[in-house]
Design a protein that fits this description.
The chain is mainly beta. It has one helix at residues 166-170; strands at residues 4-5, 10-11, 15-16, 21-22, 26-27, 32-33, 37-38, 43-44, 48-49, 54-55, 59-60, 65-66, 70-71, 76-77, 81-82, 87-88, 92-94, 97-98, 102-103, 108-109, 115-121, 125-126, 136-141, 143-145, 148-150.
Length: 171
């Protein structure tokens, strides 16, 4: 199929694009998602453009594949966003506004620096099981742990009986 264009589209309810394939790319520039969008397991074979998109509810990108990269600059995530198990194979700029928790657990960024966090507050970003050495970070705000910076996984409140997975945090 061709290039998917949703520029300035308004999704008044949740939209489920799980398992979708965007063969030649997708344009969600300035799109507005009023419900919960799911891009779980979506495959972006071409570039994915989410610049200035507005996500007013939770957003799911779990296990999504960005083969030619993407752009999330100036996007606004009003609630939680989840990229667990996502794969970034092309240059992907991630510099949105995150109002709540973001999860990038067990993601893959290959080749190195495919995923770029630039000018972003990651003080509530989960990175458990992710090799942060594969990600490019510039002008990032981290969680404050006493007199040092750290990752959110180190300070997040645990459920009763839950233990920290230190080996995964230190990877």
């Amino acid at each position: 199929s061709g290039y998917a264009t949703f520029e300035k589209a308004v999704f008044s309810e949740g939209v489920d694009l799980s398992d979708s394939t965007f063969a030649k790319g997708a344009d969600f520039f300035e799109a507005i998602f009023n419900g919960v969008p799911s891009f779980a397991r979506a495959s972006f074979t071409g570039a994915a453009d989410f610049r200035s998109a507005l996500f007013s509810d939770q957003a799911f990108f779990g296990a999504a594949v960005f083969k030619q990269g993407g752009d999330f600059s100036h996007a606004l995530f009003s609630k939680t966003v989840n990229f667990t198990d996502a794969r970034f194979s092309g240059p992907t700029l991630f510099s949105p506004v995150l109002r709540e928790e973001a999860t990038f657990e067990k993601i893959v960024s290959e080749p190195k620096d495919s995923l770029r966090f630039i000018s972003i507050d990651l003080s509530r970003c989960r990175l458990l099981g992710t090799d942060a050495r594969q990600i490019y970070f510039l002008d990032v705000r981290w969680a404050s742990i006493g007199r040092r910076d750290g990752v959110y996984d180190e300070v997040i409140r645990l459920q009763p009986g839950e233990q920290r997975q230190w080996a995964q945090i230190e990877e």
